[in-house]
Amino acid sequence: MKNLLIKNGTLVTAADLFVADIFVADGRVIWIGLLPPGGEEAANADITIDAAGKYVIPGGIDVHTHLDMPLGDICSVDDFETGTIAAACGGTTTIIDYAAQNRGESMAQGLETWLKKAEGKAVIDFGFHLTLSEFTARTLPDMEQMVALGVPSFKVFTAYPDRLMLDDASIFKVLKKAKDLGALVCAHAENGQVIDVFIREALAARQIEPKYHALTRPPAVEGEAVHRLITLAELADAPLYLVHVSCGDALKHIVNAQNRGLPVYAETCPQYLVLSAENYDQILFEGAKYVMSPPLRAKQHQECLWQGIRSHAITTIGTDHCPFNFNGQKSRGQDDFTKIPNGAPGIETRLSLLYTEGVGTGRISLNHFVDLVATSPARLFGLYPQKGTIAPGSDADLVIFDPTVETLISAVTHHSCADYSLYEGMRVKGMPETVIFRGNVIVQNGKFTGTAGEGQFLKRKPYASTR
Amino acid sequence: MKNLLIKNGTLVTAADLFVADIFVADGRVIWIGLLPPGGEEAANADITIDAAGKYVIPGGIDVHTHLDMPLGDICSVDDFETGTIAAACGGTTTIIDYAAQNRGESMAQGLETWLKKAEGKAVIDFGFHLTLSEFTARTLPDMEQMVALGVPSFKVFTAYPDRLMLDDASIFKVLKKAKDLGALVCAHAENGQVIDVFIREALAARQIEPKYHALTRPPAVEGEAVHRLITLAELADAPLYLVHVSCGDALKHIVNAQNRGLPVYAETCPQYLVLSAENYDQILFEGAKYVMSPPLRAKQHQECLWQGIRSHAITTIGTDHCPFNFNGQKSRGQDDFTKIPNGAPGIETRLSLLYTEGVGTGRISLNHFVDLVATSPARLFGLYPQKGTIAPGSDADLVIFDPTVETLISAVTHHSCADYSLYEGMRVKGMPETVIFRGNVIVQNGKFTGTAGEGQFLKRKPYASTR
Amino acid sequence: MKNLLIKNGTLVTAADLFVADIFVADGRVIWIGLLPPGGEEAANADITIDAAGKYVIPGGIDVHTHLDMPLGDICSVDDFETGTIAAACGGTTTIIDYAAQNRGESMAQGLETWLKKAEGKAVIDFGFHLTLSEFTARTLPDMEQMVALGVPSFKVFTAYPDRLMLDDASIFKVLKKAKDLGALVCAHAENGQVIDVFIREALAARQIEPKYHALTRPPAVEGEAVHRLITLAELADAPLYLVHVSCGDALKHIVNAQNRGLPVYAETCPQYLVLSAENYDQILFEGAKYVMSPPLRAKQHQECLWQGIRSHAITTIGTDHCPFNFNGQKSRGQDDFTKIPNGAPGIETRLSLLYTEGVGTGRISLNHFVDLVATSPARLFGLYPQKGTIAPGSDADLVIFDPTVETLISAVTHHSCADYSLYEGMRVKGMPETVIFRGNVIVQNGKFTGTAGEGQFLKRKPYASTR
Amino acid sequence: MKNLLIKNGTLVTAADLFVADIFVADGRVIWIGLLPPGGEEAANADITIDAAGKYVIPGGIDVHTHLDMPLGDICSVDDFETGTIAAACGGTTTIIDYAAQNRGESMAQGLETWLKKAEGKAVIDFGFHLTLSEFTARTLPDMEQMVALGVPSFKVFTAYPDRLMLDDASIFKVLKKAKDLGALVCAHAENGQVIDVFIREALAARQIEPKYHALTRPPAVEGEAVHRLITLAELADAPLYLVHVSCGDALKHIVNAQNRGLPVYAETCPQYLVLSAENYDQILFEGAKYVMSPPLRAKQHQECLWQGIRSHAITTIGTDHCPFNFNGQKSRGQDDFTKIPNGAPGIETRLSLLYTEGVGTGRISLNHFVDLVATSPARLFGLYPQKGTIAPGSDADLVIFDPTVETLISAVTHHSCADYSLYEGMRVKGMPETVIFRGNVIVQNGKFTGTAGEGQFLKRKPYASTR
Fold first, then answer.
1. What is d(CA A405, CA A356) in angstroms, rounded to the nearest whole number?
2. Distance of alpha carbon A95 from alpha carbon A382, whole angstroms
């Protein structure tokens, strides 16, 4: 493995920003310093990269992905190879994907299935959360086993009755067990029962177009579920991580809980910051592209979320990357919006969108940007300091980010297999020019140069062990 | 029927307070005025009562009672005769009791059963709410029938899974139907599933004493359910009436909803204003007397509730009178608090407790007192102006209230069949000296002088028709 | 004085609504009842009015007027005759006007001046508040004298530095004294110092049009002063009455204070409910008509205020009637908005506007309407039960209100001397058809039939004596 | 100047925590890395310090000190030598002191005076804020000059009328000017006028003991001033830094402002976190030691402040070090609490108290600790990245902090000249063992080894230039 010297870059961490040289060996950062004139030779690096005028940031960590995810008889279109290549090209060097147990299966079986999906394919490191599809006598013991195997986070749903929804008693027991294990519960918060009543009414009234997906899941059903989950977590004395928070109705309860000192964390996704429910009004069946849960919201919620980011109520930015093709998959719902598979691609555009709309507009600082896309995810999910920062001893997962390059987002150029992009034609400024993963350059000028199977499974530490 | 003249009393309504004479004929108030000197003769009344120095207020309306209510193989100990006599002696001339359907039964059958319970027994007027014990295909049509029969309010539970709890989808459908019918949904708000987890943990740990009844139903489970119900009502565009609100955790959501303009109403009960969780610490099995749901709360919640009353967030004072004997009934739970029948007597002490602790302490005005115990209940539940005020044409249900008399509350002297009182030994100041029901004196100096069976079933108007 | 029988009207008070007959003698209500068929003769009234299909409500009480008020070298254009005639025609039978001391003068001198202004002119009853123009050694003793003379309310300003503004220390002392006296402090809440900075900047930038009146007094300066005054009142343990609340920024602090149980009261005026800052954008100098303080606000504040009314955060509706002519008076500010005299007419349109926009739209009930325009003002300012309700023994100040009549508001037809109306061309539904003052009909079908000088000075009871 | 190698320490910044070696030359950090076995020789350092098992953190920055500060005819007892030695011994390597203009003087004269006070004395670096004692025609131009001279922060008072208080108009102008200059306004928030009324009442009632200092400045007067200042800052579109926030009444407005996205910052001090108003009840005149403004508060405010720290509502920890001797200075107020000089020592105990009570109790993380005492102060006040972090190129101001050492706080051992300590006898765990200032060891095992006059005046960047 070759040594690497990154010179003159502006190093950015969650707290710091300064010009420095970085020396990498054996896949790890060895030192950060200021080489004296002529010091480069003394450093004796195999490869030297000049990062002058560019930012050197920790590789991004996307803690919300769904690669190779089955949904009924179809599957999300990116597997662990295409999905992680897209991630890498977007500046992400670690993902935490949602492994799921099938009903009747043990969690270990679910994990095993997902490990096989990733094997020989992932080009960057990966960890797993475990999604609970039911609550049975073996749920709590299984959780203990998962933590021991390096999977200390579990997802519960208050939505999708009959498929994923757990009742309050079960969620409460999961939270109590998570507390005991030091694990973290991730929750999808929407009141699935109320949504079902709305859906039945809509279908009965022949309201079948994609926009009814949004209209049958109003912000209040997310707000309600968030409030309920926070109450349950508080009663269980457990931390809580709310995935893909999409609206002010949810955020206000999160802010309130945090102001009271509760360990409640929130994730949002670029689509909720950048897109809005207006997309559902596109002609023909175009609106189907934006069918995801929670749905895109009215525009005013965007500012709520940005304010939540600014005030640190929102901790992380994930993507909920769950790509389905418009042709052949989304199109199943042509005559019934409930048949449109929920989900959309986004794994590649996370950093550039957040940089453009966050840093570029002055909404957040560069440090805050790094914190949202890398450091906080690493800390919350037990990967820090191996991942999520630039420090001697840490994995040399680094992104050389050029803040000046403008690019156009398009399905034509993106690396996902999805046949469309949520952001088609959108211009972003700021680009992960070079991506270094465990000391190897895997992306150069937007071209992927890495190797399938180089990504490793990360056994993560429990949440509580890092507090 | 004899004419009646009440002279020189200080007439108090929800808004007014003035000295006046009241003339009653044919069971109704005919006029309110100032007789000139010697005018009494002209009035030509059969009976004249001098109310100088006393308040004349509308007869109280208790909208939350459970008379002759079966619970498993036992029954609340007051039937419609003893229960309404106790009510009358306490200054209440109308009750609205909770009729219930048995599972499998139609609502009409439930109503029929309760009408029979009251027949020939009730000494004052009565209406019914209908308690839903399940949600089936006939629930919504049945609701329509009930409204037509003068029963335009329905109770749903988020507590007591497997017995009374409806899931969110069912409650939401009930709310939507109520909206269509102009009816009002009354809700018992506690998260029954979370409570069940707590209860199982408690029993597993051999925590069997009465105090664990309270510890397994913390305020947060009430707060959560209230927030959830408010969200459902808002989404259904329906009004909501929260019964027996017991704590600040619930009230804050109610205040917030009202501040946003939602038609959300709250009832509390004297026990939550006057007693506290400290009662569960009484020696031996005494704590069982206070086992009700929601349970008594820590003392600081009393001030929250009083503040909710003062700011009009709380609309009505009911009793949740549901008396079980300490000996023989409560005692079933000697070795397991979950076997203690939930409920306690209180129908007779509503006015005197609220007057003593509310008006006597300066917390509320006399007008507000009348509003809480009579006028607001009448308005909300479709009885106004027949009931709930003193006006020409209204039923002559009147209480001559002597604010100076002090009495001691005791099971020895109360009229309920219950073998104990929640307030044993408590001193109250202010007493319903004379109670007039439809123009007849039925209580005189605390002695009941009325007749069983004189009470009539009141067909009530729907909520929406009175806005 | 002739006896009067009002038959078949729908009597409305702050709490009640029922059909009844009302008998009036000697200027007072004698009885309210239901005459038997043929009973009219027995009543033997001199005059009988059939009010079938109409509301009979208590005469309105406008607690915020400025009649014959000097401002520099000009004067508001209505004196106590034209002003009270306009009031009467609008259904108002009592006003409380702001008497003011000149600097250097005692309060008694100020009161004396105002009593003379009213003498022989007022056609309805009147009381006075006393406006403090300075704080001196005799301020506190003078307050005591005023209370003894029946003037138990005092106005302080946080606006208008160098003319009316008191510093915080002085206001705090006034509040403490008011507490001792049981009196009520009325406050004009705007941060006058911040406004002055804005004004100087505006003039320096040659921003001279009427709209800069509003732009130099943004809602936040009202919000700030309201918060400050509430803090001072809380520290002084004194009640506080905030006059002409105009915006959500102010209201949120009031709601918060009331939710904490503080005796904080708020008044708003029809102009803030019905008009908006858009009026300042009218062509030419038309915007000057709307120059008042606080200024009209952006439209969203209207809904805030209506919500404040609905939730009872706002207690009373006054007019702040302070009419200046557009020609000759307002026009002084043609080249400098600071020279436009602040104030506008409104005394006549209070009931019809509030009825149309409040009751007519379903925002508030009829009872609430009566409470806002009559009962609450009477209670807060020590006139109840002589005024503000319909009860045996109360003054027979009654309005027969026809809810069906539509009229057009116009300066052509209004009774104020002002040469314009804020509401020119606006259509209202609901009209005070007949106005009875102390038992005499003074307005019939919109025609004034009363007599100058019949109005009496009302010695009011202190706030605290009525709690 | 000698090179320095710090080996094996656990480096802690505001975001990171990892074991690393640090190499220092020419007063600056050169590199941070992991020396290979035997690499120490290659590093060729003059001095090597083994920091194994200890934290290496950035030198502390205390942005609120009053050294050599005149108050009437006395002076705070620490000059820039004794004061900075005490600071250094406590782990602080930079202070920002409040230079003040005398009334009538220019700001430049004030700055000149303070520069002379520091000259030849300061053992660590220092910057200045400028305290406004009046608002005159030259205030705004003077501010511009100060920014140019590296003094881009200004202090205003809403307290101390007749001595320091500015009226709202002046403060508003200062905020607007600060906005233009990119400068930061620091505010002492208490309503001085209300306090004066309370003080006069107290003295009139012969309430002269130290505890009346606290009773005459209740939390609400701080809350009021904070709300007012935030409104002014919002209207001026300027950032605001609230010094020595002491209570929940103030904090709630800060939280609210931050939740709305306003650039409002808050500082608190160890005394408000650790001590309470109970100290005023000490026997004899002991309470005088705790006389400072704002005063110590009731205990529940401590938890409010900690919660404010945890949720990042509070940004920095300063000391407000302003030491007066108990004997001879505080004693002037023996018969009149208003004559007790306001202020107390604290410059030396900032880190150890915050570490003990914050990190030691689990309330905050080590990163957060570093952020509060060093990084946030450096960022806000224009010193970053020269100060406030550990990074190549930054000043080598470093503290080797031993988390295991327990010490006793006492005036006997502290380095301030003050004849008492607020924390006498309090035990703290965690101690700045070695303090390195610009690459020189100036404290070793608690012994000061530096040199007077080595501290340099820091010209600071304006707030806005660092966003």
1. 11
2. 13
Q: Tell whether C237 lies on the interface with D, counting CB pairs under 8 A.
A: no
Distance CA A238, CA A261 (A): 12
C214 touches chain D (CB under 8 A): no
A467 close contact with D: CB closer than 8 A: yes
Cβ contacts (< 8 Å) between B223 and chain A: which residues? 231
* Centroid of chain to Cα D458: 16
Q: Do residues A297 and A271 make contact, with C-beta atoms less than 8 angstroms apart? A: no
pLDDT per residue of chain A (467 residues) written in tens, 0 to 9: 789 999 999 999 999 999 999 999 999 999 999 987 777 777 788 999 999 999 999 999 999 999 999 999 999 999 999 999 999 999 999 999 999 999 999 999 999 999 999 999 999 999 999 999 999 999 999 999 999 999 999 999 999 998 999 999 999 999 999 999 999 999 999 999 999 999 999 999 999 999 999 999 999 999 999 999 999 999 999 999 999 999 999 999 999 999 888 999 999 999 999 999 999 998 889 999 999 999 999 999 999 999 999 989 999 999 999 999 999 999 999 999 999 999 999 999 999 999 999 999 999 999 999 999 999 999 999 999 999 999 999 999 999 999 999 999 999 999 999 999 999 999 999 999 999 999 999 999 989 999 999 999 999 999 998 77
- Can you tell me the distance from the alpha carbon of A415 to that of A435, in angstroms, rounded to the nearest whole number? 15
What Cα–Cα distance (Å) separates residue D313 from each residue in A148, B6, C185, D250, D299? Answer: 37, 64, 36, 11, 19
In whole angstroms, what is the distance from residue B322 CA to residue B325 CA?
A: 10
Residue C414 contacts residue C427 (beta carbons within 8 Å): no
Return the residue of B nearest to A230 by Cα: B224
Nearest to D249 by CA among C260, A15, B113: C260
CA dist., res. A309 & res. A363, Å (int): 9
Q: What is the pTM of this model?
A: 0.94
Structural domains of chain D, ranges and CATH numbers in brackets: 59-383 (3.20.20.140)
Identity (one letter) of the amino acid at D437?
F
Q: What does the DSSP assignment read for B59-98?
A: PEEEEEE-TT-EETTEE-S--HHHHHHHHHHTTEEEEEEE
Q: SS3 sequence, A89-135?
A: HCCEEEEEEEEECCCCCCHHHHHHHHHHHHCCCCCCEEEEEEECCCC
DSSP D281-335: G-STTGGGGG--SSPP--THHHHHHHHHHHTTS--EE---B----TTTTGGGGTT
Q: Check B193 against A169: CB less than 8 A apart.
A: yes
The reply to whether residue D17 touches residue A393, judged by beta carbons under 8 angstroms, is no
Report whether C231 contacts D158 (CB < 8 A): no
The helix/strand/coil state of C258 is helix
Q: Does the CB of B231 have a partner CB in chain A at under 8 Å?
A: yes
Contact residues, chain C, for B18 at CB < 8 Å: 385, 389, 391-394
Bridge partners of residue D271, in order along the sequence: none
Beta-strand pair C153-157/C184-188? parallel
Contact (Cβ atoms closer than 8 angstroms) between residue B388 and residue B379: yes
* Chain C CB within 8 Å of residue B39 CB: no
Please say whether the beta carbons of C353 and C428 come within 8 A: yes
Residue A259 has its nearest CB partner, among D20, D23, D255, at D255
Find out whether A67 and A23 touch, Cβ atoms under 8 Å. Answer: no
* CA B429 – CA B407 distance, rounded (Å): 6
Q: Which residues of B touch A219 (CB under 8 A)?
A: none
Residues 413-442 on C with a CB inside 8 Å of B are: none
Mention every residue, 6+ apart, whose C-beta is less than 8 A from residue C415.
Answer: C82, C85, C86, C89, C348, C448
B and C: number of Cβ contacts within 8 A: 99
Quote the tokens at residue D288.
Answer: 């005088």
Chain D residues near residue A368 by CB distance under 8 angstroms: none
